[in-house]
Amino acid sequence: MSGAPRAHRHGDRPPVLGIEGLSIEFAMRRGAARVVDGVTLEVWPGEIVGLIGESGSGKTMTALSVLGLLPRTAKITAGDIRLSGTSLLGLPEAQLRAIRGRDIAMIPQNPMSALNPVLRVGAQVGEPYVLHRRADWKTALAQAVRRLTDVHLPLPDERASEYPHQFSGGMQQRAMTAMAIALEPQLLVADEPTTALDVTIQAQILRLLREIREEHRTSILFITHDLGVVAETCDWVYVMYAGRILEQGSVERIFAHPGHPYTQALLRATPAAEPAQAELVSIPGTIPSPLDLPRGCRFLDRCPYRFEHCNEEPPPLAVETDHTARCWLLEAVNG
Amino acid sequence: MQLVQHERHRMGLWAISWRRSRLLFIGGFLVGLVVPSAVFADVISPYSPYDIDVANKLQPPGRTHWLGTDEFGRDVLSRIIHAARISVKVGAVAVSVGLIGGGMIGITAGYFGGPIDMVLMRFMELLFSFPAILLAIVLMAVLGTSILNAMTAIGIIFIPGFSRLARAATQEVLRQQYIEAAHTIGMTDLRLLTREILPNVITPLFVEAMAAFAYAVLLESSLSFLGLGAQPPEPSWGNMLNTGRGFMDQAPWLGIVPGMAMLIGVLGFNLLGDGLRDFFDPRLREAV
Asked: Is A44 helix (H, G, I), strand (E, B) or coil?
């Protein structure tokens, strides 16, 4: 990653995924809960982009909106979602269905429950070929075995005719990944794909995702709450908190100079591998309810550096080139 | 898992499969008595079930008539075998009506929900609120007394039960993540219903079908006992039992034999249903 601004590295091509000013609201009895608020995010070709945030920050809703699979009670109230320049909002369901699985695919959080227990794994991995390419079963099954080979499942031929419960967690996640990359989609949305797995398996799956990016030039939107996973996997990071993007930048820069007090706190709260840092730090307080957001900065109540200015919401301010954070402190520093 | 493996080594595969599928074996054996009797009734019966031989009426079980003769001198064994045919036919037709009708109603209600669910299920509850035998009698009164109408009536009785089961199973499946995963690869409603939902719903329906089969045999016997099902001289376990009732002190075999036949039929289909459930569920099949 050189010093040139991110967007310029890709010439005239639009980003694979362009989310602009996206807001998502749930209608509740106490009023509208805005769980995603003005989120702007880009995923460029071949990038692995981390969307990091704690539970309730709105990261999963953002991911579901990309697939057009928001729960019925949720409404997109503002903004746009574009796939390689084409807006996905307002597309009829049939067209969205044609895009899902072909252009955008998802790797779920929990592979054990994401595989149908009564169908053979090969039949499930081959399903996208039947759905989108109208392949016959024999072809689909052959393609499924090829994809299972791609994800380094041992003995793919035999494994394809087994049932999900005969697979270990890691193998199940490999099968889900094989299903997701079946038709070589432009964009993979991985929603906490390693959270349900143990650490050694986690590392294997992360390596697999990087490999898929290298071999197929697939862009990946990687949703996680785990900073360690981000550091290992992603090129670019968006830090989400209470429905807003608080900071964005390249992984190296964010880890080297976190601009927002929230990101700084997150980094401190990550347990280090070496026991040099004996005490585990936590961030005091809890994430605000989307029904009761603070008027100014979203992190106001938990921020150790708050001052008067923070009652007014900060815009994204530059920390350095291609690295912004929504914090008034930066204005003070930058002068 | 480890425990299972230890067990497997110690007890050997035969013992394991016996332990896991003894219901299947016992049920299969009992059903194996009833169903072939029904199918090959004409071949295996020693006599015609209709031949009257008044000289030899009310003969106790013996060499010539293994299970004795009835008040008209007809061979009881032959009549029991032919009656199995009616029981199996009624069971098969009634369960098919119930399974297909109830399955379609239940899956539709469960998948679409909302007003469709509301209307369908209230109607099912209306049917359910009648005692089964009373509903059968009402339906028979409307449709007329015949064995075909008995099959239809029993089938209609089964529809609410199957529909509730199918609806609950569908709703359960809809909550699963693999349905969400199916959406993420762009699956259509129809394909989702047939490929993801149906195979997950069919197992409980199948088990229920076997239990319903047993119940259908019992209901048909009840209707025939009351004179609403199979009409004399057509033999049925129910009308044979009814006849036997009048001869309990002179010829107890006339009551005991159809009673035993019903026991074997009902118990057999019930056990087979339970055994098949264990066998067909891939989550339980692994160790077999």
From this structure: coil
Tokens of B279: 């066998």
SS3 assignment, position A254 = helix
ipTM (interface predicted TM): 0.81
Q: What are the chain B neighbours of A127 within 8 Å (beta carbons)? A: 182, 185, 187, 195
Q: Which residues of B touch A119 (CB under 8 A)?
A: 195-196, 199
- pLDDT higher than threshold 50 for residue A2: no
pLDDT at B20: 67
Closest-CA residue to A179 (of A157, A146, A202): A146
What are the two backbone dihedrals, phi and then psi, of residue B110, each rounded to the nearest 5 degrees? -70, -40
A188 Cβ under 8 Å from any chain B Cβ: no
Per residue in A295-307, is it b (16+ CB within 10 Å) or e — as a string? Answer: ebbbbeebbeebe
Residue A106 contacts B where some CB pair is shorter than 8 Å: yes
pTM over 0.80: no
In whole angstroms, what is the distance from residue B181 CA to residue B170 CA? 16
A81-129: per-residue pLDDT in tens?
999 999 999 899 999 999 999 999 999 888 888 999 989 999 999 999 9
Q: Taking 70 as the threshold, does the pLDDT of residue A333 lie above it? A: yes
DSSP conformation class of A291: T
Sign for the pseudo-dihedral over CA of A212, A217, A223, A227: positive
Lowest mean pLDDT among A329-333, B22-26, B112-116, B164-168: A329-333
The alpha-carbon gap from A166 to the nearest alpha carbon of chain B, in Å, equals 8
